[in-house]
Amino acid sequence: MPVDLDLLKAVVWCRYKAYLKYTGEHGVITEYELLQQRLANAYREQGVQWLAQHYDPEDICWNPASLKEARMSRYRLTVNVPCVTEHGAITVPAMERTETTGGQQEFVPLFFSHANKPAKHEKLLAAVIGTAFSRWSDLPVSHVRLVFGSRFSTTRLGLSGPKGPTRLGSESATMLHDLEGMIAAPTAPKRFLNAHCGICEFRPRCHKEVTERDELSLLRALQPKEIEAWHSRGIFTVTQLAHTFRPKTMGRSSQEPKRHSQPLQAMAVRDQMIYVRKVPELPTSPVKVFLDVEGIPEREFFYLIGVVLMQDGEKIRHQFWADDESQQEAIWRDFLKLLETLGDYVVVYFGRYERDFIREMLHRYGDNGKVGEAILARLFDVHAAIRTNIFFPVYSNGLKEITSFLGQGWEGPLGSGLDSIVWRCNWEDTRDGSLKEDLLRYNYEDCMALLTVFDRISAISTPTTDGSIRFTETGDMPQNAKGTFGQSAFATPELKAITKCAYFNHQQKVFFRTDKYVRRSVLRKRRALRTLLKVNQVKECNGAPDVCKKCGSPKIRMIAKSRGRKIVRDLKVFHGGVKRWVVRYATPRYECCSCRATCFSPSYPTDGTTLGTGVARWIIHQRVALRQSFDSVRDCLYELFGYSFGQSIVVDAYMDLAHVHVITETSLLSRLRCGNMICADESKMRIKGGVSGYVWAFSGPEIVVYRFSPSRDATVLNEIVDGFTGVLVSDFYGVYDSVKCLQQKCLVHLVRDINDDLLKAPFDEELKSVATRFTALMTPIIGDIDRYGLKKRHLGKYLPAAKAYREWIAQQRFASPAAQRYRTRIGKYGDRLFTFLSHDGVPWNNNLAENAVKLIASRRKLLDGLMSEEGIKNYLIFLSIYQTLRRKGGSFLRF
């Protein structure tokens, strides 16, 4: 079978489609493809007639019988040039004969595209046909011309130049070479799903086969080169790709993802779970305009603007229809008039099409005053918000795929944007009212689908207890154990047993039996541990107990010539340092006359421990203040003091002292509640098992109390402020708003946000006015605080200025979204921004709590994911005492 025009068209779109056509396969041609063929044929006839008007009739050759006739003739324009050789058979719509500056003849094939802006595949098809025509006819063809659009514009597509083939020429030559190689040795090429699959006649077949095999090309964002790269690594299915995802909990890339993660997308499909890499920031405007536009891209014609308004919980539908291009400006003006009535609004859309529509309309017809320009600052692209942040269990991030997963379908007969183009063209031919109604319904359903997706993102972004919204944050996922310390999972018990024999302790036993030098070292260490320690103090514990601990009998008698002895290893802290202090306790033995149980003096230590309180304090100091592990603490005790303890003894001493100091932490909290202010902040922390929680820091000028909570709700916060009558200083996190007490919001957070927005938009005059007035208000206040301190008798005079600033910003109607956000924010918090002006000792920032949280951040590697919930609660008891003593200037070791 020779190459024909259909094969060349197919190879441009998909090599696998060209193979199916070459082998005689047939499918059902879609209505959209039939429409494109009809429009292309009609435009080609119009284009040839337009082209013929620019030549003398005697210079035109119509439908030559052969390529030889067209080549030998002296006509300047030849229409429908046949090229039939042993390689293939094609017909070039038109060919011009020109002369170069050197007097040589040059042949330029012409092709036609009805689109006002020809797509890449149309240019590539013209280049492929031009390359084939040049190669098969031996004519010097250095470039082809493409006639396109309603005005019959032309563009030159170069195939070769002075330095060799152009990029377009090389790409077209490669496609032609692949096609000829496939014909010479018919072998199915690799199959990749692409954008053409939506209109391809073989789509049902390919999609079924690809789905059954779970091939990577199901993920529409993966390009063929990326798929080939995964294949080279042995990854051939979506399920296999899902297992390659590794969560990154550290580093900037995890905080500000810039690329879409295909492994995470594959994992979402595999697990049927929504994964959240970063929660996107959503607009807070009270009125939301959900926009969807229908058009015909080839004609750059927008015929339907669909809007669903969400205002005060009510949905309002608006649609603007244009019968033809002459009404396009009218529906644009009607759309702008609708926006003029809304006040503070945001336009929500999905993808680039609506954004390009707004920019194109502004370019063509301008705006109504400042409304049109304001739209560009009020746009919010849902697709951009979820592209790198939220991963739904779908193969592509199309609106219909995501909405179908969320449970919403399309009730009308139209299922895609391509169908709407076909139906619009049919309506223009027939003016059938039912077709128009179907298009209007399809547009409205698109707007409602956008609303559904936006609501789901809002539910993810806002803390909720709704169990139906299932999603997982990638930062909460356990990291891969490969390359890290800890226990590993094994597929079989035999593998676990073999691996266990390679551990260090096991190998030490092997070398103990193998190497005499290792044996000597181990024996030397054992002798050192058995060395008797010098006793520094002997304590005689005399006096019989009052009653028997076992039966409670008061009849106690001393056993003659029987004494109890016990060595307690302790540390003594003095002004110059710390020294080893060994105490030997001695006491007579006593016996209960009733139950014959042995008793000792009440001052004799009978709890079974061999550690003194000084060693326990040393363990806590090393663990909390110096951030040492329990193994490091044991090594330190042995190297410095010659004490050798098992890890369980060290951990037990730590836990016992934590239970003792629960009372100390309760006392600190009581004193904190008695103060006139509490600064609060929180930080995320993981515990064992990959479960996330939060460490809350509550701080006064000197006292700090830490608490752990499995969630970020207000449970711990309400427990801490119960009975508190002062002012709570916090950031703008919404949970703090639920607390029933006076509040001061951290103005440093507000200053940072204003500064960041000013750096992003340095020419936003409205935002500058907000910042300038706020700066003018705060500058003298900060000056008086530095001069007199936080005293209301000096700061109360600024209350009228603060009230005037709030009233001014409440009266403004900003066009700038950034300035409008601050108007809403300042209006929402009101007096809570300036509470410190009317109270003594209340700061205007939350730096006390932020400083306390920094201590948590500095210990994140020690705590994050490595401690149980009970362990981290005990650790926070000591951390509260340690931070409080630091601020008071006390010694944690001597406490």
Detailed description of the structure:
This protein is an alpha/beta fold. It is 45% helix and 18% strand. It contains 34 helices and 25 strands. Strands 1-2-3-4-5-6 form a six-stranded mixed sheet, with helices on both faces. The chain has a five-stranded mixed sheet with strand order 12-11-10-13-14, sandwiched between helices. The protein has a five-stranded mixed sheet with strand order 23-22-21-24-25. Helix 2 (15-22) packs parallel to helix 6 (167-184) and helix 22 (613-625) crosses helix 24. The protein is elongated and about 140 Å long. 29% of the residues are buried. Residues 249-254 and 464-469 have low confidence and may be disordered.
Strand order of the largest sheet: 1-2-3-4-5-6
The proportion of residues forming helix, as a percent range, comes to 40-55%
Instruction: Give the overall average pLDDT.
Output: 85
Rough outline: elongated
Largest sheet: 6 strands, mixed
Structural class: alpha/beta
Kindly state the number of beta strands. 25
Task: Kindly estimate the percentage of residues that lie in beta strands according to DSSP.
Answer: 15-25%
Distance between the termini: 94 Å
Counting H and I runs of at least 4 residues, what is the number of helices?
34
Low-confidence runs of at least 5 consecutive residues:
249-254, 464-469
CA radius of gyration is 40 Å
